[in-house]
Amino acid sequence: MSELLLSAQHLTKRFGGLAAVNDVSVDLFRDRIHAVIGPNGAGKSTLTNLLSGDLPPTSGRITLNGVETAGQSPERISRLGLGRSYQKTNIFLPFTVWDNVRLAAQSSERHSPWNPLRWLGRADQLRAVNQRCERALELAGLTHRGPTVAGTISHGEQRQLEIAMTLATEPTVLLLDEPLAGMGQAEAESMVALLLKLKKNHAMMLVEHDMDAVFALADQLTVMVNGQVIASGTPAQVRADPVVQAAYLGEEHA
Predict the structure, then answer these.
(1) Does residue 88 lie in a domain region?
(2) Among the three residues 135, 151, 170, which one is the final residue of a domain in this structure?
(3) Which of 170, 203, 229 is the last residue of a domain?
(4) φ, ψ at 13 (rounded to 5°)
(5) pLDDT tens across 160-211, in order?
(6) Are residues 162 and 223 in the same domain?
(7) Domain that holds residue 116
(8) Same domain, 163 and 190
(9) Is 67 in the same domain as 57?
(10) At residue 13, does pLDDT exceed 80?
């Protein structure tokens, strides 16, 4: 039985009279990838923002590793074990790959009570931070790119770097918003392999438009249209659902 790490129940987010997310529930388990799919404007990114704390829900509950997190800050939720990536690559282009990941690792450092001597030390000499950085780069397959300026690596590697930055905070739950966006076939295949490698030790929610990748990766699928869930189940169940085919997938995925 897989371990439940994040549970969101009856989430709703209203912007005035518009319900961008309307009564959506999702459970994320370790060693399982839960993909959320749907057309543009379906509410997928809003759902991700609710889970990560970037937006507070209008109503509903979210529990992460046994702690209720709805309405808490992204920083607090990150320290409880949630990491996320964004639709657009969110890295420091002039910095090296190593420094990008080290900054992410440093952001999750648990500080002891204020000590003036700590502020005088060199951040790049924090042993625990450097160890987390090394592990994250290794997991993401970017150890050899550590000294390279992030703005000079390929788009696919930049997406890997963003995941490495997420891993440096040592999350148990990963929210990945279109990690394959803009990739060619070889880069997409590399990303799929990376996500499958990470799956064993994480609960993962994947928002993605690449249906081939979704069906290769997902253990569970949720389909959203206009802020609401129209279907949820295994990939085979969702693929066979006539409502989903009509609303989103089309005959080529039937």
Answers:
(1) no
(2) 170
(3) 170
(4) -130, 115
(5) 999 999 999 999 999 999 999 989 999 999 999 999 999 999 999 999 988 8
(6) no
(7) 93-170
(8) no
(9) yes
(10) yes
Whether 15 shows a pLDDT value over 90: the answer reads yes
One-character DSSP codes across 209-247 = S-HHHHHHH-SEEEEEETTEEEEEE-HHHHHH-HHHIII
Q: How far is CA 233 from the centre of its chain?
A: 20
Q: Same domain for 68 and 178?
A: yes
The pLDDT, as a whole number, for residue 119 is: 45
Residue 87, pLDDT above cutoff 90: no
Q: Based on the fold, state whether residues 163 and 200 are members of the same structural domain.
A: no
Domain count, the chain: 2
Residue at token pair 């000499």:
125
Cα separation of 169 and 129, whole Å? Answer: 9
Mean pLDDT (whole number) for 5-17: 97
pLDDT at 117 over 90: no
Q: Say which amino acid occupies 131.
A: Q
Burial (0-12, 13-18, 19+ Cβ within 10 Å), 117: exposed
How does pLDDT run across 26-58, given as a tens digit for each residue? 999 999 999 999 999 999 999 999 999 999 999
**76 and 177 assigned to the same domain:** yes
Question: Alpha helix locations (H) across the chain?
Answer: 44-52, 74-79, 97-107, 127-140, 155-167, 185-199, 211-217, 235-240, 242-244
**Is the confidence at residue 217, as pLDDT, over 80?**
yes
What's the mean pLDDT in 107-115? Answer: 55
Closest CA to 188 of 211, 164, 169: 211
CB of 69 within 8 A of CB of 63?
yes
Residues 194, 155, single domain; the answer is: no
Is residue 21 in some structural domain? yes
